[in-house]
Amino acid sequence: MSNAIIPEFELRVLNHLWEHGGLTARQLTDLMYPQGTHASYTTVKKLLERLESKGCVQRSADDRAHRFTAIIDRESVVANELENVVDRLCEGSIAPLVNALVQRVDLSKKQRSELEQLISDFQSDAKKKGRRKR
Q: How would you label 2-30 residue by residue, b for 16+ Cβ within 10 Å and e otherwise?
């Protein structure tokens, strides 16, 4: 997958695929648009085509209908989206993003401890692997 941004409706398709596994375009349409029309089906097919071109889903022939499965995991999409946010809004520095989140979220003592542990683990890993700083 490239660093392409995944728009909201494409992300909704991926969420259904992550939750249900392989689905046909008709099944996805029924999940996304319960009162769907032909236009809804066409929309879902277009979203699947876009996701396929981005390397996020693959299609396989299952009898007559094509079944689509996500070939990218949720964690990879989250990481990609956060990298895009950091690049677009924070000039490549993660500090303003983390600061904004910490300032706006009331973290419990346990959550603060978990965050501190994540930073500590990251620093240890970075030293071991010789990672570049962002």
A: eeeebeeebbbbbebbeeeebbbbebbbb
**DSSP H or E segment with residue 19:** helix 8-20
Domain definitions of the chain by residue range: 8-70
Residue among 20, 14, 18, 95 at smallest CA distance from 47: 14
Q: Evaluate if pTM is beyond 0.90.
A: no
**CATH number for the domain whose boundaries are 8-70:** 1.10.10.10
Q: For every one of its 134 residues, what pLDDT tens digit does the chain have, with 9 covering 90 and above? A: 667 789 999 999 999 999 999 999 999 999 999 887 888 999 999 999 999 999 999 999 767 789 999 999 999 999 999 999 999 999 999 999 888 888 888 889 999 899 899 989 989 888 887 755 55
> Token match 């979220």: residue?
105
| Interatomic CA distance for residues 75 and 81, integer angstroms | 10
